[in-house]
Every structure is written in structure tokens, then in C-alpha cells.
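Final report, results section. Input specification for complex C-07:
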Amino acid sequence: MNINAKKILIPACLVVAVVLFPRVVASSYWLNLINLAISFSIAAIGLNIVLGYAGQLSLAQAAFWGIGAYTSALLTTQLGVPVWGGMFAAFFMSALFGVLLGIPTLKLSGHYLAMATIGFGIILQLVLVNAIWLTNGSDGITKIPSPWIGSLELDDPGDFFYVAAVALILFTWGAINLKNSRVGRAFMAIRENEMAAETTGVDTTFYKIMAFALSAGYAGFGGWMFAHSCSHYISPDTFSFDQSVMILVMAVLGGNGSAIGSIVGSVLLTLLPEVLRFLKNYYMMVYAAGIVLIMIYMPSGIAGLVRHMRVSTRLRTWWNSDSTAARQVAASSSGGEVVSVEAIAVTEGSGAGEVLLTVKGLAKQFGGLKAVDGVDMVVRRGEIQALIGPNGSGKTTTLNMLSGLYIPTGGEISLEGAAIAGRKPHVITSLGIARTFQNIRLFGELTVLDNVLIGQQCHSKSGLISSIFHPPWQRAEESAMRAKAIGMLAFVGLKGKEFAQSNSLPYGQQRLLEMARALVSDPKLLLLDEPAAGLNAAETETLVDLLFQISKRGITILLVEHDMNLVMNVSDHITVLNFGRKIAEGTAEEIEKNQEVIDAYLGTEVGNA
Amino acid sequence: MDWTTNLQMLTAGLAMGSIYALVALGFVLIFNAVNVVNFAQGEFVMVPAFVAVWLMSYLELPYYLTCAATVIFMGIFGIIFQRIAYYPLRHRTFLPVVISTIGVGIFLKNGAQNIFGAEPLSMPRPTASEALNLFGVYVDPQYIVIILCTLALLAFQYFLFEKTKLGKMLQATAQDKEMARLLGIRVTIMIAITFAYSSMLGAAAGILVGPIFFVTKEMGGMLGLKAFCSTIVGGFGSVPGAIVGGVFLGVVEVFGAYYVSSAYRDAFAFIILILVLLVRPQGFFGEKIAEKA
Amino acid sequence: MKKAQSVFLVIFLFVVGLGMVGGSAAMAADDIRIGFTPPVTGASAAEGALQIKAIKLALKEINAAGGVNGKKIDLRIVDNQSSNPGALASLQNAVEQEKVLAMVGFVKSTQILAASDAIKKYGIPSIIGGTNFTLTRQGNPWLFRVRSDDSIAAAAMVKYIKEDTKLTKIGILHDIDAFGTGGADLVEQYAKESGLTIVKREKFSTKEKDYTAPLLSLKNAGAEIMVVYAPNAEDVALVQRQYRQLGSPFKYIGSPSSQMKDCLNLSKEAAEGLLAIADFVPGQGEAANRYAAAYKKEYNEDFDATSAWAYDGLYILVNAIKKGGENRDKIREAVLATKGYKGVLGTFDFTANGDGLHEVSVVQIEKSAPKLLKIVSVAAK
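Structure output:
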């Protein structure tokens, strides 16, 4: 089947299914339940975005669902706003609250974030109950109108189903598109390794707030659906912490990170109590036991289960065999060679030898400990400089200040004349400094290709809207990014590994991948933190070659290293730190002979790496 | 602004706060040991309360025997709990464990309903139900028992953890499992003991609070959440922090309910939580832990 | 791991299949099906259990007496899960899956409102036990209330306070839920109309444990009598206890939960001498006494007053079916035509909007049992 036929296949099936469904299931009882399930599904997909994609645990989804329901219910019953207007209001009001919740909780993660969101949800429910002047309190809001299409009032659940189904399809499509886009990758980078995401150029603050807002907006839309269908009545007791827990279970049961999984989870958990009525008061115990068992035996949820089944693997291979990404990779591997050189811009000859980075009086104090105590250094364009010294001398701390992870307590840093001390890591990355880490910080669950695509965050433009809708210019940008990524992988020696999961690579290749990710942002200065750590002799040689290749293309390198052979071999200039202060600098020969350096660090027999 | 009213509320606040503190203590111990936030901690109070009522009302055991039996029961319960909810998930990230503990909490709640019925039950009191009148302040004698027992438990715990070998081993396991294992400490057993001890603290809380609050399947829910708030406010991972946080929240709640709004009483704990998280996330006593780059 | 997953999946599908197949049991052609939607699970499970006992007693008696023209009543109980979506689902399940003719329905006003549209669409006669004043004034002709609504309870309270206790300064303590707030609003309104003063109104959230603050607040505001309007036995028992421990700073009169069996079992001596409104009390009539005795005989425990509406409700519905046949419109007319029916809760005279009962009893707790002080009737509004 060719690619065009494939593109029409799914939409066609969906249209048929949606049109036929209310005819086949003629019962108002089941249709109301399905509409309810769809309303939950959208909320669960939203949770998937903030939790599954971005890794932030929010236990307030029912609160946003409630904000959407109440916003629209109040506007339509009190102010006569048409129901479709209420729909937009619901989405944006919830998204606004998502921003309001996201901003203060940025610094939090894990349990702290979960607790803060729980608190938010409980406070909101209390407000819904007590702000009687606004919300009518515990009595709730009755006679919520149904939407109209032309002259047709959609108050029959079978009619409302069409709205629900179309909405569900659109929201799911959006979420799936998002996953495979610049914004989606930014979310996943934050989830995988927030620190690395920040230094790779992802503005983690901005994207976390965006994830919250988007997720809240989804839930708000779900709430709109709930208010204008089913009972046409809402009251505060529905929007409780227990409900947030249930939405969480729906998302996780379906498979964290899978939008379709969320739909399956929601439908299951809405319909199961009906189907399992014969269990009577044992239903909740079975439900709870089920949750625990699923966590133990089916951690990736239903989506994970399905993914492992052979039928689905074959389906997926068939479906993906024509995908753009796959075709690009295939083309490059058969075509071959020259792509690699174009991957990195060559800046050779442009101002080699000029000062690129200046550090004056740099200091970092942790409480009483002076990790870095007044360091001056200069890095010149095109050179390879090494920063060496005993453990605890302040090398990594210096690197962290250069890349923006630490704010210096004193001193200045300027890159090409611009002051960068204390600026956020992703800003520094966009200005031209990229880095790797001592303990490799890859986006482990993501593919090799995705890691390198995220590296291009600074130089790509696609925002939220284009990430959801995939307009032609966005697709072109993605293609170009992929081409560059493929080229870069070939350059570092990882050709053919594009679709491997990055944490499945052997250690040495993971280091190369991290390097590729750093290089692909076209940095002026590359900071390497112990790049040779854990490499054997052969791998170290490859590394040396690579360093020279990078340098030939005009990229300046500053590396922290303990492997003295490597250091003496590659460095044009060496700076030595001890106890947070610079004790020497110069060429390899000069440093080898420097008595202070020998006493502090090298020992009498140079060459003992 | 009269003194009697304020003292009255202070007493109530201290008593409620002691309960929060006890439950918070159970939280912190488990968290320190295995980095797990136990969302079923409230149920650790509810289950022993039901068991104690059953022993006293149906088997008609005397009070102290009931206490002993319930505490032992909860010790065993804690070990079983960790085997089911924690052990299979011990190598995973925190999300599966959080959801698993939530699931166990729901299971216990509904299990209690199926076993003991849906009606709220009254636990026989060891103390008289008439309030003592101390300087114009009415004090339920059970409140005094709660505060004294909490202090006694804290003293016991301090002794156990600081002065005994077992306590040191538990602390070592909590701080660095790998290292503890290398030093020959049976880490699996230490973890089991920690869960058991945390459950026994829950038994104490359940027995102490049952007589004043009645025993229902819902009694654990909000209690657990507020105790969790207490640990964060006091400093997550800090044992004295859990105590201080619990008492602080208990007192603030009562005064907030009187002077600000009784309808928003539940909100105060969470508002304080959010403020603390924003301004000083390590709480009163916690330590700032920076991630190593 | 994979094997465990497959086993799990198989078991899961089996259970689900079982549920779908076992859905609705066989229908005996000669039975009349009536639906009942109590909370079997969830937060209100305790009340649900009592309601089931009450209605089953009625069911037993009715079927033993021959049912309706020889046909037995088949009661289908569908759990409303103590939630709004659950209420709607339970009603729809009862009508579409269990195919019931008529319903005995919900107590909680939010659940009634949640199911109200569906009830109207199906046109199914539904007996309700909710006391929120507006429920029978929403334009739904299919709801029939077999309890006195809150306006009657509130009016009775205020009347009793004014005429019998002769106190004038009232403090209100109420749950923030729909029941508590609605009742408190009505008490406040009637008190003002009668020239009494509301010194303060304090609220609490359902399942609150510590009432020191609101009780002290009412005391310091100078309340002479406190009205407690709240639905949960457990919460009210705590209020009673703590009120006693603070030295009983004022008099106490409560909504029906203050004298319900579950509450008295918990508060024990603390409840002694307190006043409350009750749906009914033994001694107020022959039907009430009969009910108390029959309940004791059947379940070997004392009756609960707040769930007895379900007993009366089933009787009234069945009587209407006897009169109107198995036709929903005719049943509706028959219910509304019910006048002078002496039920457990009192004498039923249905008004056009569906309210059946217009009287409540004021009781005083004596030795953990409510003792009748006075029956207060309010003319139907």
C-alpha cells in the first residue's frame, strides 16, 4: 500500500466509526457513559502531556477539569454566552490557571510538586463550595444548556457524541503530533534530564509552564464537555482529589506517554464500574488491587503491553516503513559519505587566535567553602585548552559557571565581549557555549536521533502551534534538522544507530552521542567535562582524533581532564587549578616542568596517567 | 481577644498537632529509608483503629492487651505492606510506587468497609469522657494522653535510633543503602523493620485518636495528606521537622478556623504548604540538597 | 514478565466478559420491577446500608401480602456510588438495563439534580428522599418527595425555639454541603421573619474532626441556642461530644442527623437531653410503632429514623401501581392523588408539585433514644 493510501486509511476508518457508533449503540445509558469517558479521556491526555511527556507529576487535573466546567457553566447560564464561546473560555481559563499553578511550582519536582498540586486542588474545591456569590456553592449549577449546531440542539447524548468524538480525535491527533516535534522533544528532554535539557538549549522554565498550561487547557475542555452533556448539572463535590487520582490512574493504566493509551484507560475506568456491578461492594477493592498489579506487572500500561505484542510490532513496522525519518536515514546510509562534512559549519581562519572567552576574578562560594577563589583565564579562538588540577580544585565548578549552571559569587565572564556570568544555561547555549557532562547526561529513553535533534533546540523555531499542527514549513524544518543530525552522527562515528534507544548504547558510544548533541548546536566554544573518563585506550584514541577534527573546523575547546597523556597530546594551552586558584598556565612543555604543578598534582613521573 | 478562648484553642491545636506529628513521623521514616512517599500512611492509622475496636468490642479484650495486640498486628502488617506495595517496585522510579501506595490505600479503605461495615464505630475510651476544667480551659483527658504518649514515643524513638546498634543500622540504611550493604548490614531486613516500625506508629496514632474521633474508613484520608504537609513544612526527611511541622499545622488550623474562616479550615494546611514550598522548600529543619552536575 | 502479563490479560478479559454477559438476569414475566438507587459504595455507604434495610423490610411485607394483584415486586438495587455521575449512571442502568417500571431514588440533592433531566426524559415516576426545598420546584413532574423538605424542618425548629424555649439569640453551625447550607439559609430566613436574632453562622467541611473553633466562636458571639444543620452522623456526634466538653455553653437543637441511630450510638451520653428534628419517632403514631417493632424483629437492632422514608416510599409507590396499573402516567397521577395515607413518617397528603409530607417531630434525646416532644405541621406552600 503506498503512502498516500496509508494517509487516508486512518481518517476514513475514524469517520465511519464515529458516524456509525451512535446508531449501533442506541442506548442513552451507554452513550452518556461514553461521553463521560471521552471527557475524562481528554483530561487524561492532558495529564499525559505534563506527566508522560514532561515528567511533572500533577495531581490537580480534576481541579482544572472543574475550572473548565464552571467557567463555561457560569458564562452560559448567567451571561447567556453561547455554548461554543464557553468552550473557548473553558480552555483558556483553565490554561491560565495552569500557568498560575506552574509558575510558583517551577522549582519543585517529584513529591514536592505532587503535594503542591494536591494542595491547589483541595483549595480550589473549597473555593468552589464557599464562593457562593460566584459559583452557587454546594448546590451547584443546574440547567446547563446544550450546544447548538445551526438549529439543532445537541441535547441527546447520541448527538453530543459527534462533538465529543470529533474533539477527542483532534485533541489526540494534536498530542501525538506534539510528541514528534520540537516542543514535544523539549518536554521529553526535561523529563529525561532537566539539567542536560537546560544546557542543551531548552528553556526549561518556559516549557514547564507551557506543559502545565497545555495540560490544564485539555482538562478544561474536558470539563466543558462534562458540563454541557450528561447531567447538564455540576456541583463541587465532583471535582475532588479522588477524581484527580482517578484521572492519574487512567493515564498510567493506559500507558504513561501514550495519548491513545489514555483514551483506553479512561474508557476502561469509566465503563468498568458499570460492567462489574455484579461485584457490588467488592468493586473498589478489585479496582485498587488492579492498580497495584498493573504497576507491578504492566508498568508501561496497556500501551506497553500492546507495543510488545508481535501483531502490533509488525503493524507498526509496516506503517512506519514509509515515514519521512526512516526514509531520510535509509537514504543517507546508502548514499554515504559527504553529508558528514557539511554537518558542522567550518569557521576556520576567522579570527583564529583572538580572545573568545575572558574570565576575571571568578569565584564561587558554597557557605564557608570557597570552591573557586578568584580565577583569571583566557580562551583563544580555535585553540584546545585544558583545565587540570587535583580533585576538588574547582574545575567542574568553573565549567558549571561557564555553562550557567552555577551563578558565580564573584567575578566576570565574557564571551566575545558579552557578559554571561549568571545568565541561564539555555541562553548561554544560544550564545554559543555547549558542554558535555562528567557523568553522562543523555536523554536516556529517547532515541539517538532525538538526542541530537534536541541539540538543535536553539537554532530551530517551531513553537507550540506549529508543533501541534505540523504546517509545511515545520515539516521542512524537521527534515533539515534530521539531515543535520544524521550528518553529525556520522561525523562522530555513530552512523546506523539513529533509532537505537540512547541508554542502550555502550558507554563509549554514549560519550560520542553526548558530544554529537553538543556539537550540533554550532557552538563557538565546546566545554568537555572529563570526556575520556571510562574510555579504554582505543576509545581514547578515537576521542583524540575527534577532538582534532572538531578543532580543525574552527570550534574552540575547553576540556577538563585527568588523563595526562591526552592532555599533553591535544592541548595548545593548559591552565592548572589548585584549591580554587590558578597556579600555573602555559603550553604542555611549560606545565610539565612547572614545580608547583608537579608538587600539587603531577607527581615526579610525568606520564603516569 | 480573651485568654480562655485562645488557650482552649491552643490545647485543641496541640492535640491535633500531635496526631499529625505521629503520622508524619511514620511518613518520614519510610521516606528516609526507601525514598518512597507512602500515600497510604493515613490508612496505617485507620486499619489499627478498626482492629482495636473489634478486639475491644467483640472479643472484649481488656484495653492494654488490645493495645499490645494491635501494635503487634500492625508490625506484621507493615512487613506485608512493604512486600506487596514496595518490594516489587523498589528499582523503579517514584511514580509507580506513588500510584501503588495510592492503590493500597483505596484497597484498605474499602476492605475495612467490607469487613467492619459502613457505619462509624465508637472506640471505648481509656479515659473519662468528661472534660477536665483547668483554669477555665476545658481539656478532654484523652488530649492529655495523646500529648504525653507522643512525647513518650518520641523519647523512645530518640533512644532507639541514637543509642542502640539497631537504630544506627536503620539510620545507615536510610542514608546510603549501598554502603550499608557493603558494611554487612542486612538492608532488606532493615527496610522491613522500618516499615514495621512506621506501621506501629500508625497503630499508636489510631489507638490514641480513635476514642475522640470515632472510627470510619474515611478517617485516614485527610489525616494522611495533612501529615504529609507537616513533613514538608517541617523539613522533608527531618524527624524533628515532622514533629514541629505537625504541631505547627495543628495549631495554625485551629486559630485560622476561628479568626479567619472555619469553612476554609482544611485549606490552611495546604496554603502553608505552598508558601513553604515557594519560600523555603527545605522547610524548617530540612537540608538543601543540590544535584551534582 | 511477559507470561505474567498474558495471564493477567486473560483473567481481566474473562472478568469483564462475565460482567457483560451476566448483566441483567432473567426476567420473570410476572414480576413488577422497581428500581432502587442507594449508595452501596463510596462516602455515603453507611446511609445506603440503612436505606436498603428499610426498603427491604417493606418489600418483604408487600410481597408477603400478595404483591400487586398477585404479581410480586422485584426490587432492583443499583449502586449510585455516592457520586453525581454515578447517580446518573445508576438511574439509566435501572431504566435501560434492569427495565424497571418506577423508581425509588436518591437522597442527596446533588445526585437528584444530576439524574433529574434523565428522569424527566424517561418519564419515570421517582420517589425521592432529598429534603432540599427546590427539588420539587424545578419543573420536573416525575419527582415525588416522601419526606418533609427543609423548609418544614427549619420552620419547625424556629417555631419551637420561639414558642417553647423562648430563647431569642440563635447561633448556627452547619456543614458547607448543599444540605447544611440550604437548611441554614432557611433557618436564618425564618428566624428573621419571627423576630429572632442570628448572632453568628459558622461552617465546617464534611468529615471535620475538631469543632473547638466554631463552637467557641458561637459562644463568644452570645448564642443562647445553637442550631446544628449537617447530614453526617459521625460529624454531628463529634459536635455533640465536643459541645459537652466545652461545658454545654448554650442549648442545642439539630437537624435529623442529630438523633439518627448511628449518631446516638457514637455520642452516647453526650446526646442526653439534646433537641432535634426527627422524621418520625415511635409514639407519634401507630404506623411508626409497627415499623419500630417489625424492624427490630427482622434485623435484631433498633430502627433508624432517617432511612425510614425508603419504607414509606416503596409502599406509596406500590399503592399507586395498584391504583394506576403498570402505566407510568397513571402511576404518576395516583401518587399525586395520595391523600391521608398514614405512613411511618406521618400522614401523607401530596400537593401538585410532588411534596407528600408536611410535618416533622421535635424530639428530645433520653437514654440514647429520641422521645417525642411535639409534632409540627406546616401548611403546604
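Chain B touches chain C through 36 residues (CB under 8 Å). Chain B has a mean pLDDT of 87. This concludes the modelling results for the funded period.
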